[in-house]
Amino acid sequence: MSTTTIPTPSGTETIPSTMRAVVVHGPEDYRLEERPVPVPGPGELLLKTDAVGVCASDLKCYHGAAKFWGDENRTAWAERDRIPGHEFVGTIVSAGDGALAKRGVALGDRIACEQIVPCWECRYCLDGAYWMCAVHDMFGFKGYDGAMAEYVLVPTKALTHPVRRDLPGHVAAFAEPLSCAFHAVERADIKFNDVVVIAGAGPIGLSAIAGARQKNPLKIIALDVVPEKLALAEKVGADMTINIAEHDAVSVIKELTDGYGADVYIEATGHPSAVPQGLNLLRKLGTFVEYSVFKDAVSVDWSIISDDKELDVRGAHLGPHTWPAAIKLLEAETLPMDEICTHQFPLERFQDALDLVGDSSGGSVKVSIIPSMSV
Question: How many CA atoms lie within 13 A of 59 on its CB side?
């Protein structure tokens, strides 16, 4: 194996010619392989991957969800022969011409990349809504390889953000789900007097609770079925929790609100039953924010949205303009990240990481892969 040695602020970094990488061959067919280490061209950066989170969307893609692989109503979006992993942070070890100056960084700096790589040419990008880019290339799914590998290439069109180097890698990589949840919170347009209900106390739900806490509404209520996750929800800012396996959330919340219902509902479970639950527990003129990626189709009574309650239903996608705030909160070290980032795996155990994310018993919260970790 050939190597290249380059100077960095901490000494030297030896870059091999090949690397270990997880490669997508199709649904339920991901393999650990040797791949060439990318060589950055003009304007591009090469990162040594510090950590990459395993997202619920990674799992749904792995299991063949129609959103990624298509069905009778849509073509496939995800690509084969692609390295997955869109929640990542890495250290700059090489750069093409002009890349360091363009981004105001240096070799040895740590950065996080937004998951979407906008085209900057479609109507959405030109209107400033880059996160809805029509091309919709995204690390690990389409257009660009992700970071379930020892190294990852940052293209010229990518958006990057500096992250403090002394944060553990798996904590720094949590900026991606945290920024996504912050966007959902912004879409909710939370007011001081609102009762806010957040369904799910997984990575996105907990992040939404932390974000909603920054808005300081009257009451934040977390819903889940796992007692340990509900306890964690209180640590990140929930005023109250409801175990929906033991209590009827709709009845409890209506009793708390003089029969009216909640002002805001943020759905962060990805379970079809959470959608009608939210419609039923909201008050008239309430706001429903949907963030989840669903594996299966969801059916609801749309008359609740229209004729019954005139609800404001909003989608939320990715984390536009919220990354600096998410990174700032992580760097403040006020969140219980040791309890949120529960499991880390080496690349060789990527399958164990995927399987753990898919374990519905609630044995994990945030699962990450650390390429430098020994087996």
Answer: 21
Q: Do the beta carbons of residue 138 and residue 115 sit within 8 Å? A: yes
pLDDT, tens digit (0-9, with 9 covering 90-100), for 23-59: 999 999 999 999 999 999 999 999 999 999 999 899 9
- The structure tokens listed for 353 are 């990481």
Residues 40 and 95 sit within 8 Å (Cβ to Cβ): yes
* pLDDT exceeds 70 at position 63: yes
Q: Give residue 362's pLDDT.
A: 74
**Is 226:294 a contact under the CB 8 Å cutoff?**
no
* Model pLDDT, residue 360: 75
